[in-house]
Structures are given as C-alpha cells and as structure tokens.
Amino acid sequence: MTNPQKVKGSKAELEVARWLSAETGFDCRRALGAGRQQDVGDIWGLPGVMIEVKNYADFAAGVRSAMSTIHVKKANAGADYAVAFLRRPGGLYLAVQPADDWLAMWREAVA
Fold first, then answer.
1. What is the structure's pLDDT at 4?
2. Sheet of 81-87: strands edge to edge?
3. Where in 56-103 does DSSP place strands (E)?
4. Which residues are CB-contacts of 104 (< 8 A; sequence separation ≥ 6)?
5. Torsion angle defined by CA atoms of residues 44, 53, 88 and 80, in that order, rounded to the nearest 10 degrees
6. How confident is the model over 10-15, as a mean pLDDT?
7. 44 pLDDT tier (thresholds 50, 70, 90)
8. Are 41 and 52 in contact (CB under 8 A)?
9. Cβ atoms within 10 A of the Cβ of 83, count?
10. In sequence order, what E strands does the chain have?
11. How far apart (Å, rounded) are the C-alpha atoms in residues 68 and 66?
C-alpha cells in the first residue's frame, strides 16, 4: 500500500510543476529521488531557482521543514535563488524564501 503522506506530497509537487510550466513557459517537472544525498529540491526547470514543495496540515511545520534545508538544497542544485511553495489547507499556495534570496531577486529585478 502506498504511503498517504507521500501521495499527498507528490500531488502537491505535480500541481506546482504544472502551474509553473503554464505561467512561465518553462518545462517544470518533479525532480525524482526524494531523500537522496545530493537533494536538489522538488521541482526543476526554472533556470537558477531551487524549488521545494511542502503540503503539511500544520503550516508552521511546513515552513520549519522547508527552511531547515533550503540553503543546502540550493547549493546542491547550484541555484542562485531558493523558494518553497507551501500548500495551505484549502489549496492556496504561499511562496516562502530566505530574505537574502528575496533581496537578491528584487535587486536583479530593478537593475
């Protein structure tokens, strides 16, 4: 029998990958092999961005989980920026990222 938490997480990753593909024009896909030693995040396809996806009933736990490893996964992916998409109960996704990544993105956007 399949782990229900794994199914829930996989569904969220597919939702985010499809949404990003539709909105950005890039071919975003799930990065298979969760838990691997050189984890590079959950979604690949946006150049320079490491993307993590969390789907926790407890939103604060999802933030803690994502932020605890985001810098390591960003380095593993060789990415310039990192972001975590966290699914709220009811389906709303929020993007959460380290403040230094947000500031770097803002600086690039206004340059």
1. 86
2. 29-30, 43-44, 49-54, 81-87, 93-96
3. 81-87, 93-96
4. 80, 81
5. -70
6. 94
7. very high
8. yes
9. 23
10. 29-30, 43-44, 49-54, 81-87, 93-96
11. 6
The backbone torsions φ and ψ at residue 94, rounded to the nearest 5 degrees and listed phi first, read -120, 140
Number of other CB atoms surrounding residue 74 within 10 Å: 23
Query: What mean pLDDT is reported for the chain?
Result: 92
As a residue count, the chain comes to 111
Residue-level pLDDT at 34: 59
Residue 52: closest CA among 37, 27, 72: 72
CATH of the domain at 91: 3.40.1350
Number of domains in the chain: 1
Q: Which domain holds residue 37?
A: 4-110
| Nearest to 73, CA basis, from 103, 41, 102, 95 | 41
Neighbours of 104 (CB within 10 A): 14
Task: Find the largest Cα–Cα distance for the chain.
Answer: 52
